[in-house]
Amino acid sequence: MNIVQTVNSWDLSDDKAKLLLRLVVGVTVLVHGLYKLSNPETIGFIGGAFENYSLPAFFAYLVYLGEVIAPLMLLAGWQTKIASLLVAITLIVAIILVHLGDIFTLTATGGWGIELQALMLFTSVAIFGLGAGKYSLDAKATRNVEV
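The structure corresponding to this sequence follows.
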């Protein structure tokens, strides 16, 4: 068997791939949220960004919903569509408030200026479309309803 046939024979089920997506996005976004929890001054920075758009600074506290609660929901696979939507909205807001000027830039290493934010945003949208898969609390709840 050649290398192409070998690689093509490897199987990652749809459900395992969905779990992998949820875990990667959940952990990546959660780390950002945990940083903000351990460094409360970041909320002041985010609040200032909201005020720059004539919005109330207290909206900054919603970051905990999108970067702590929603990622935990993704990791558990609980209310996955809602969680992925919350993460996506959080990332859209972050791009608008903080990274808008980076959309058409490259980093010093040649990457896209918002590649991390875009990757998490579009992966969250993919999770929204795909659902949680069978390795999730959502699937467990569905199985209990069908019985």
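Residues 106 and 112 are 5 Å apart (CA to CA).
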